[in-house]
């Protein structure tokens, strides 16, 4: 006799994500309750909208990339926690430290702590970036800029120790030395050091401050230039823990074929892939002639019923593709609500009034449905064992009122 609890997911497609555990309860025929409590896979979203809630603020403060109105915070928080287990918090230097020597540390610590207390992994984004570099850096020598960047990295790593162990160490290096859209003090330093040099600066400074950190190289450039940068960094001995790939699809869904082609090109490095910034619109598609997404900012970009149906379909397809690929370790969606969304685009899973779109239900149905072991009652087998098969993650078993926590690691499922 075998007591078995099994997830509904297709092991043929998601076998690399799934595993099994045999849990002994010590008594044959015991009534057992099994439930999953967390995915090992990182299902992420930005946590910008909940910084105010964590700080008990009744108003919204600019983060650099938008924030939902404070009146929606409770609704957003409830929906956020229903689905996601990884939060990205904003450390854009210009908005984090608008006045030199006055960083917004306490507010971001409160936000990070709020998430950690609810079992959420927190990622800091980013430690180094040319965009949104502080204006007070302008006019400094490159040597002084370097010193200040190193001090900033050490400070953030130190101040958020125990709360944030995962950082985008540096963002969008491919374009960094060539950036001309806005005068900033980081681009001249990147030009002087070279791309590999500025990457080394970010990674080595952060790792010296805390050797336990997990550090990500993040970029939107999916061309061979990014592949070449990774190759050069690895050849130079820079330890990269994960490769971050952005996929803001305001000009239309990539589709499975292109997504898989991108994943395969970057998986060849043998490093985990984080789909670090992902978005799909539920309104009209941005015109194809727009080169820089930031150049398309219009008075109103509404979500529509047709767009919402399309978004739900594309979200499901995109997440299925990513979760099925063994190299991908996490997906971070770039906004849960249309209220205050980046560039005013209707990319959220919630409408501006906080109501869920079909895409929210579709994603919830995957993460907490098809890919989740629900609370299940079963009778222990003749050996007093229960076999649990499901996605890698954390689980609980309850028998006679006693709770036993256990984990399932990804690996081959047993033969039925």
UniProtKB/TrEMBL annotation:
Superkingdom of origin: Bacteria
Known EC number: 3.2.1.8
Secreted among keywords: no
Reaction(s) this enzyme catalyzes, per UniProt: Endohydrolysis of (1->4)-beta-D-xylosidic linkages in xylans
One GO process term, biological-process aspect: xylan catabolic process
Sorted UniProt keywords: Carbohydrate metabolism, Glycosidase, Hydrolase, Polysaccharide degradation, Signal, Xylan degradation
GO molecular function terms noted in the UniProt entry: endo-1,4-beta-xylanase activity
The keyword Secreted is annotated on this UniProt entry: no
Class of the enzyme per the UniProt entry, highest EC level: hydrolase
One Pfam family of this chain: Glyco_hydro_10
Sequence similarity: Belongs to the glycosyl hydrolase 10 (cellulase F) family.
PANTHER family assigned: BETA-XYLANASE, GLYCOSYL HYDROLASE
Protein name per its UniProtKB record: Beta-xylanase
Organism: Tessaracoccus lapidicaptus
UniProt lineage: Bacteria, Bacillati, Actinomycetota, Actinomycetes, Propionibacteriales
């Amino acid at each position: 006799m075998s007591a078995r609890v099994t997830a509904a997911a297709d092991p043929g497609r998601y076998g690399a994500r799934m595993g099994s555990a045999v849990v002994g309860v010590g008594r044959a025929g015991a009534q057992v309750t099994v439930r999953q409590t967390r995915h090992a896979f990182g299902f992420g979203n930005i946590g910008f909208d909940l910084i105010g809630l964590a700080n008990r603020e009744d108003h919204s403060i600019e983060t650099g990339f938008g924030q939902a109105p404070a009146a929606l915070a409770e609704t957003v928080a409830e929906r956020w926690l229903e689905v996601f287990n990884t939060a990205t918090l904003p450390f854009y230097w210009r908005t984090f430290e608008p006045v030199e020597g006055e960083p917004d540390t306490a507010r971001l610590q409160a936000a990070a702590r709020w998430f950690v207390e609810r079992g959420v992994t927190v990622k800091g984004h980013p430690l180094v970036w040319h965009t949104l570099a502080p204006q007070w850096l302008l006019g400094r020598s490159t040597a002084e800029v370097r010193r200040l960047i190193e001090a900033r990295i050490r400070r953030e790593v130190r101040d958020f120790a125990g709360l944030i162990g995962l950082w985008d160490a540096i963002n969008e290096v491919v374009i960094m030395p060539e950036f001309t859209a806005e005068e900033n003090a980081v681009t001249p330093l990147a030009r002087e050091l070279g791309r590999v040099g500025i990457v080394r600066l970010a990674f080595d400074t952060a790792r010296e401050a805390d050797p336990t950190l997990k550090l990500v190289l993040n970029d939107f450039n999916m061309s061979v230039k990014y592949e070449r940068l990774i190759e050069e960094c690895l050849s130079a001995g820079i330890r990269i823990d994960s490769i971050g790939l952005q996929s803001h699809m305001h000009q239309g869904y990539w589709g499975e074929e292109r997504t898989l082609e991108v994943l395969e090109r970057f998986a060849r490095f043998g490093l985990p892939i984080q789909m670090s910034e992902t978005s799909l619109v539920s309104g009209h598609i941005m015109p194809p002639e727009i080169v820089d997404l930031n150049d398309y900012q219009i008075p109103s970009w509404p979500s529509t019923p047709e767009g919402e149906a399309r978004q739900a379909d594309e979200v499901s397809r995109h997440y299925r593709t990513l979760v099925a690929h063994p190299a991908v370790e996490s997906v971070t969606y770039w906004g849960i609500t249309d209220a205050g969304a980046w560039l005013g685009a209707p990319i959220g899973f919630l409408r501006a009034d906080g109501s869920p779109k079909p895409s929210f239900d579709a994603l919830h149905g995957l993460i907490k449905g098809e890919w989740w072991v629900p609370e299940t009652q079963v009778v222990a087998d003749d050996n007093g064992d229960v076999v649990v098969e499901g996605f890698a993650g954390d689980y609980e078993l309850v028998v006679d009122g006693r709770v036993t926590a256990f984990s399932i690691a990804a690996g081959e499922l047993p033969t039925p």
